[in-house]
């Protein structure tokens, strides 16, 4: 059976027999790991391999949120720390050429870490443009506070990941930077005009519309659809396709976040009805995963084409580089703006 159009998490550092059986039968397109799943490099590599073994696909995507700063699932003592996006923006403000180079290099280093344990998708770059007085859920995760900086450094990061065989995920389309609430906890409503959104929030996503994967924002934009967040809004997904020119694979943000309401199956059905290609479910709750799986279609048609095209972007011959020298260059550039 072909893969189904969802991405699943798991409960701990190793698959339970129930999870293994569920994944074997439900065949999710991909998986995602969090801190609860990570103990050591050897353990994580074994978990990643067990995901792929369960679904019988050696190329099954395995995702992680490895941004740096506050959002870094693989961290010390087994992996080095990385700075948040804003630090790269500070380097860029002083020296645009160096800033772009170091941002790409930092992403290559992260991808190198991920590749050693078999992870092939990183939920980076953050293309949100924070606005004054907005909730700090984005904050220093952003590369800057203007769309040009975010676009340039977002592309540098995406290119660095791709160069090392890791797929980037542009997020949170079409922009989370104006939200006055954390969508993990509540549903943000943004009342900016379409012209304001188009000039600022949308710009980085339009500039990176050639990237293979995108993650939606659980945000209501009254200028687009006052009745539903982008994830479950047909108007919202149409905007991503038509106004932003994005023909890559669109996944929802985590369906278990509190910005969404209703039963889990209904959330998934609404995301698919809106036009999402993939539903993302992260918390590893078995009952919720079953509900998402019941709603998820087999990947076919345009969604199947986009998912296959995304996997086709994985470079199987990574660009040569010296990680020791690269880390030294990264640390030196960061020290200069400390």
Structural class, from helix and strand content? alpha/beta
Average pLDDT figure: 96
Report the biggest beta sheet as strand number plus sense, adding barrel if it closes: 8 strands, parallel, barrel
When the domains are counted, the total is 1
Helix content, binned percent: 40-55%
Can you say what the CATH homologous superfamily is? Glycoside hydrolase, family 3, N-terminal domain
Your description of this structure?
The structure is a single chain. The protein has 338 residues and is an alpha/beta fold. The protein is 41% helix and 13% strand. It has a single domain (4-336), classed as Alpha-Beta Barrel (TIM Barrel), CATH 3.20.20.300. Strand 4 (66-68) and strand 5 form a beta hairpin. Helix 1 (17-26) packs across helix 2 (41-55), helix 3 (85-94) packs antiparallel against helix 4 and helix 4 runs parallel beside helix 5 (147-163). It starts with a strand and ends with a helix.
Which properties best describe this structure?
338 residues, alpha/beta, TIM Barrel, eight-stranded parallel barrel, two-stranded antiparallel sheet, 12 helices, globular
Strand and helix map with partners:
Elements: E1 4-8, H1 17-26, E2 28-33, H2 41-55, E3 62-64, E4 66-68, E5 71-72, H3 85-94, H4 96-117, E6 121-122, H5 147-163, E7 167-173, E8 189-190, H6 194-199, H7 203-207, E9 213-216, E10 220-221, H8 234-242, E11 249-254, H9 264-274, E12 278-280, H10 286-295, H11 301-311, H12 323-336
Parallel strand pairs: 1-2, 1-12, 2-3, 3-6, 6-7, 7-9, 8-10, 9-11, 11-12
Antiparallel strand pairs: 4-5
Helix pairs in contact: 1-2, 3-4, 4-5, 4-12, 9-10
